[in-house]
Amino acid sequence: MNRWELNPCDGDPCELSDTESDPHEIDNLYGRPDHRDRVRAMAAVIGIWQHWTGDTVPPSAP
Question: Is 10 in contact with 59 (CB distance < 8 Å)?
């Protein structure tokens, strides 16, 4: 299991969770400036995966 979980949502609030320190995913870290680079990097990986798999659902902008 990865420590960080990013849930990009088109039309709903996006979520970033630290599953190590917050296993129940209570605190949404998505909008916090100190996690901005992490969100961008994770969103880029999701974008690459979407391209590779042919997923056409538009990702949310980080």
Answer: yes
CB 16 within 8 A of CB 30: yes
Residue 50 DSSP label? H
Q: Are 46 and 59 in contact (CB under 8 A)?
A: yes
Question: What is the phi/psi pair of residue 15, to 5°?
Answer: -135, 140
In whole angstroms, give the CA distance from residue 41 to residue 36.
9
pLDDT digits (tens, 9 = 90+) for 44-62: 999 899 999 999 887 665 5
Dihedral sign (CA 38, 42, 48, 50):
negative
Q: What is the pTM of this model?
A: 0.81
In 1-62, DSSP assigns E strands to 4-7, 15-18
